[in-house]
Design goal:
The structure holds two protein chains of two kinds. By secondary structure, chain A is of the alpha+beta class. Helices cover 55% and strands 11% of the residues of chain A. Chain A contains twelve helices and eight strands. In chain A, strands 1-8-4-5 form a four-stranded antiparallel beta sheet, with no helix packed on it. In chain A, strands 2-3-7-6 form a four-stranded antiparallel beta sheet, with no helix packed on it. In chain A, helix 4 packs antiparallel against helix 7 and helix 4 packs antiparallel against helix 9. The longest helix of chain A has 35 residues, at 171-205. Chain B has eleven helices and 14 strands. By secondary structure, chain B is α/β, with parallel strands linked by helices. In chain B, the strands form three sheets. Chain B has a six-stranded mixed beta sheet with strand order 6-7-8-3-9-10, with helices on both faces. In chain B, strands 2-1-4-5 form a four-stranded antiparallel beta sheet. Helices cover 35% and strands 28% of the residues of chain B. Chain B has helices spanning 43-50, 72-75, 94-104, 109-122, 138-150, 168-183, 195-201, 219-225, 241-248, 275-284, 299-310, and strands spanning 4-13, 17-27, 32-36, 58-63, 66-67, 79-82, 156-160, 187-192, 204-209, 212-218, 230-235, 253-258, 263-268, 289-294. In chain B, 37% of the residues are buried. Classes of the chains: A alpha+beta, B alpha/beta. Chain A binds chain B through residues 3-4, 7, 10-11, 14-15, 158-171, 330, 332-334, and chain B through 13, 48, 51-55, 72-77, 79, 81, 83-89, 91-92, 100-101, 103-106, 145, 148, 158.
Chain lengths: 334, 311
């Protein structure tokens, strides 16, 4: 098994597949990170902006008579300085709230008055990591397909199977060796992604999300599940292209479509692997995990339950491994 | 224990094409058997079942009495195989390829190094030992395929068309190596569709056609049975129409055709005695003969003869 695994890793390295996937993964993280910067935004800094407060007459805020929105939702409250008519307002003249966005409430009605505000802002490290994690399940599905779909049928198509299979070695050992190799390569690529996310987060906001390792655990499990599904497909496919197309179709189209259909019908799609894989994104807020919104709404919003998602991904992995072993054992070289 | 034994082996592809039809044979220790048959006769199917690449529909295949289907790992422990023309990992050198396969077969590093050097030398690949196999020609790959089959010094060799892609020199080397292996007690089953190749190396022929064994006999016996039906004759001068008619009148000659100015093809029928007798008859007509030899009989013709004999 180890001999097969070593050769398989070498194959990924020599065929530049490993390098290609690593580059795609790192580039995608950098791209997601750079999009706001390219549109003129920044993750942290100091800004001064003109506010045009609107009058406020609400029972909810009886002490305040006008309000204005700040352009950066991640303003640091302690850094806010407000200047009206060349005079700084004292802290008890206003209040900053973030419940409904970054809003400054004024005790005085400054409607039609020019108000200048300066403040420091820095995006929350959890929000930043979440933004970068959003496309990651899709990327995992892609990487697993590229690695796994070729694993069995690739040897048959290139005829290296005629060298490998007529040996005193069990088919299952060949399979496990390939699984081990692809998992190692996948883990390295995954780790590169998380390292990139952590590095960019540190560069952008000076801190790394505390629970970044939790999405990593879910990502590893989802990667393994995707790999095993691709392996199972590879054992019954006639060509690498067929295996790759089927695997991509299943992981990137069929499951997400099923998930979307359930969501639009207001149903919880807990059993769909891509829904379970959303735990990769949501679990970054581990100590403030989002709750399902089912009341007072026309279309309920469901979030994957971490425990259930873990179980779902594990079950899919186990079924795929069993299917791969059986199908590969029966695969003939006609 | 019998090195190779096959019992009522049947293989039906996709429920329709019957590639093997209850064939049975066994190959004793130190035997060198040629599995002969035209393309599509079922010989590669039989070899693939024996090497665990295919699953039979019914029947059983044994290597040293171990069922290949049920216990492939143990059954193939002492088998070296070349099935079809295998491909190699193009990024590996021959040395790395042999190391990989040696490790896979549980050999020690020192054994792998020693055997690899010997085999690459034996198959004329020593100078290419550090080149990537991806750059190898078909013939070089075939020689490497044979080298890997011998790496772990197996007791049984199963070779599918082993001379495919080899040049004449390679074929001669291969014949020498196979004969040498047989001397050392290795049991060999090789498939081929070249009668001459099998005649020159094997001591027994299993002839297979449309999934059935149509002949199982010693090479010597089969060679005696082969009926030559055509001779090429090159005369010293251009033969006259009268000379051709006189050749045609020889007993057993069915037809005489001019192929070129001095070359004549003589077809013979069932009443024909022998090539030596025919040559003497032609010489007795006063014709000067520069060369006289029989056509190699196409194997298909021999099958037809065998089948007709059977019917």
């Amino acid at each position: 098994m180890v001999v097969i695994a070593k050769n398989e890793i070498l194959r990924h390295v020599k065929t530049k597949r490993f390098m290609g996937l690593a580059l795609i993964v790192v580039a995608s993280a950098i791209l997601v990170f750079c999009v706001p910067l390219l549109s003129g935004d920044s993750y942290s800094g100091q800004t001064t902006e003109e506010l045009y407060p609107a009058p406020l007459d609400s029972e909810m805020y009886p002490d305040y008579h006008s309000y204005a929105w700040l352009s950066h939702g991640d303003a640091r409250a302690e850094s806010i300085k407000i200047l009206v008519n060349d005079t700084y307002l004292s802290a008890n003249e206003w209040e900053f709230q973030t419940d409904l966005g970054a809003i400054v409430f004024f005790r005085t009605d400054y409607n039609s008055t020019s108000v200048t505000v300066s403040y420091q802002y820095a995006m929350n490290e959890i929000a930043l990591a979440k933004d970068m994690l959003v496309p990651f399940p899709f990327i995992i599905g892609f990487c697993a397909s590229v690695l796994g779909a070729d694993a069995i049928v690739g040897d048959i198509q290139t005829r290296t199977a005629y060298l490998l299979f007529p040996n005193a070695i069990r088919r299952s050992s060949i399979l496990y060796g390939k699984v081990l190799a692809d998992t190692i390569v996948g883990v390295v690529i995954l780790s590169l992604f998380f390292f990139t996310v952590a590095l960019l987060s540190f560069i952008a906001v000076g801190v790394v999300a505390r629970f970044l390792y939790v999405p990593l655990v879910f990502a590893l499990l989802y990667l393994f599940m995707c790999l095993m599904m691709s392996f199972a497909i590879s054992t019954v496919s006639r060509t690498t292209v067929e295996a790759l197309a089927t695997s991509l179709l299943l992981l990137l189209l069929v499951f997400p479509s099923l998930q979307a259909a359930e969501a639009s019908a207001g149903q919880d799609s807990w059993y769909v692997p891509t829904f379970a894989a959303d735990a990769i994104v949501q679990s970054i807020s581990w100590n403030d995990y989002p709750q399902d919104v089912t009341e007072n709404t026309s279309v309920p919003t469901y979030y994957p339950d971490p425990g259930l998602s873990f179980a779902v991904l594990t079950i899919y992995s186990a079924i795929s491994v069993a299917a791969s072993v059986v199908l590969f054992g029966r695969r003939e070289l006609t | 224990m019998t090195p190779i034994r096959v019992e009522k082996l049947t293989k039906i592809y996709k429920g329709k094409v019957r590639a093997l039809n209850e064939i049975s044979f066994s190959i004793g220790k130190n035997e060198m058997v040629g599995l002969l048959g035209p393309n599509g006769s079922g010989k590669t199917t039989a070899i693939k079942i024996l090497t665990g690449l295919l699953r039979q529909t019914s029947g059983r295949a044994f290597i040293y009495e171990l069922d290949v289907l049920e216990d492939q790992k143990a059954a193939l422990e002492n088998v070296g195989a070349v099935v079809e023309v295998p491909e190699f990992y193009p990024f590996l050198t021959p040395i790395e390829t042999l190391r990989f396969l040696g490790q896979l077969r549980g050999m020690t590093e020192s054994d792998i190094d020693l055997r690899s050097r010997d085999l690459l030398e034996m198959f004329g690949l020593a100078e290419n030992a550090m080149e990537k196999v991806g750059r190898f020609s078909k013939g070089m790959k075939q020689r490497l395929a044979l080298a890997q089959a011998l790496l772990h010094e197996p007791d049984v060799l199963i070779l599918d068309e082993p001379t495919d892609g080899l040049d004449p020199e390679g074929i001669a080397d291969m014949r020498r190596i196979l004969l040498d292996l047989r001397k050392r007690g290795v049991t060999i089953l090789m498939s081929s569709h070249h009668l001459m190749e099998v005649q020159n190396t094997c001591d027994r022929i299993l002839m297979i056609d449309r999934g059935r064994i149509v002949a199982d006999d010693s090479v010597e016996h089969i060679a005696q049975e082969v009926r030559v039906n055509c001779y090429d004759l090159v005369l010293a001068g251009e033969p006259s129409p009268d000379s051709l008619n006189r050749i045609k009148s020889i007993q057993g000659v069915a037809d005489v055709k001019r192929k070129s100015s001095r070359m004549v093809v003589v077809d013979v029928d069932d009443s024909f005695r022998s090539g030596e007798w025919l040559l003497n008859e032609i010489l007795s007509l006063g014709l000067r003969v520069e060369s006289f030899h029989s056509h190699d009989i196409p194997l298909e013709t021999y099958y037809v003869q065998r089948k007709q004999d059977g019917e």
